[in-house]
Amino acid sequence: MEQREVLQGVVAVLTEALERRRLVREGKEQGDEPASGMISSLLMDLMPKLAFAPDATVRDVTMAVKREWSPAIEQMAAAFALAFVTLAEAHDDGAADVSTADILRALALHFEE
Fold it and tell me: In Å, how far are 32, 36, 83, 112 from 12, measured between CA atoms?
């Protein structure tokens, strides 16, 4: 998956979590489970599928998971970090006239190009 697609998935997760928190605060939704559907979807898209021979050892599985999943996890963590830093910088700059949703939208559009 390209970094652009990963970042857009991360923005979708954060946007859904933001909307769910708003609904909970307004009493329109119960619970605090943030964006679980979007996270599952992102992980399914991002993580390489693994298959193992019936005689695979624990070491074989461990090495395959490390080799195949580490880059995807690093890519997703970098996208979450970029989104966080973008939001934190806007907060620190005192951007009171711009909402979090606006910042996330702009971030997603920036990486759509």
Answer: 17, 11, 11, 13
